[in-house]
Amino acid sequence: MRRSNFQDQPTDYAAVGATQAADLMQYPPDGYRPHEESIKIGSGDERFAAASASVLSWEVLRLAGITVASIERGSGDAYQGVRFAEDGTPIGRGTERTEDRFASDGTPYITSGTTAELSGRVGPYRVRGHIRVVYVVEEPRRVTFAFGTVSGHTISGEESFAIEKRDDDSVWFTVRAFVRAARPLYRIFPFLLMRRRRRLAAQYLRALSPAWARTVRD
């Protein structure tokens, strides 16, 4: 019998795709704590395109100090997320481009079902574990993807990264997540879970912020 590896494993939580729900902050999946932060990162079509490319090529994680390795590209079919209306009603599966695309360094763009291994340290917090991309949605004014935890993490849950071009031509970057403790430390001291969550979100936002770019890269 073939030995199972993490590419064969499902996410370790049930509410796959729930970071798209409009009411996530009010009604997170049972037992999970939600978090959301946004920042304006510029304006115009060029800024939207550049930020979208950074998100879809893992660059935002790398600029935040996280190594993305063992990337296994997904088919784009399994794990395609459900889209939600503003009132939280599911309205169908997300849309995703099917052609292969690559970043300037040869990294393939993220597709649904892609798996990877994350490692690194953000401030005092260690990041390590396997993840699976649970949805990718590309629309004319919004690009977003989310990954869910598979194994090896100190927390369990889902995290999404969205670039949005609003009606006033401004471009915004939003990080959303719902998490719960997967290790004893965070179960004993639950306040540390959200402190970690806020620090990670801030580092992601800074990675795409022109004002903080030099600090993140140095």
Q: Could you characterize what this model shows?
A:
The structure is a single chain. By secondary structure, the protein is of the alpha+beta class. The chain has one domain: Alpha-D-Glucose-1,6-Bisphosphate, Chain A, domain 4. Helix content is 21%, strand content 37%. The chain has a seven-stranded antiparallel sheet. The longest helix is centred in the last third of the chain and has 18 residues, at 190-207. It is globular and about 45 Å long.
- Mean pLDDT over the full residue set: 81
Strand order of the largest sheet: 1-9-8-7-6-5-2
Q: Estimate the global geometry from the Cα principal axes.
A: globular
Number of domains: 1
* Low-confidence spans: 1-6, 94-98, 213-218
Q: How much helical structure, as a percent, in the residues? A: 10-25%
**Count of helical segments?**
5
Major sheet: 7 strands, antiparallel
Write down the CATH topology. Alpha-D-Glucose-1,6-Bisphosphate, Chain A, domain 4
- Return the CATH class: Alpha Beta
The CATH architecture would be 2-Layer Sandwich
What is the element layout, followed by pairings?
Layout: E1 33-43, H1 45-56, H2 59-63, E2 66-72, E3 82-84, E4 90-93, E5 115-122, E6 125-139, E7 142-151, E8 155-165, E9 170-181, H3 184-188, H4 190-207, H5 213-217
Antiparallel strand pairs: 1-9, 2-5, 3-4, 5-6, 6-7, 7-8, 8-9
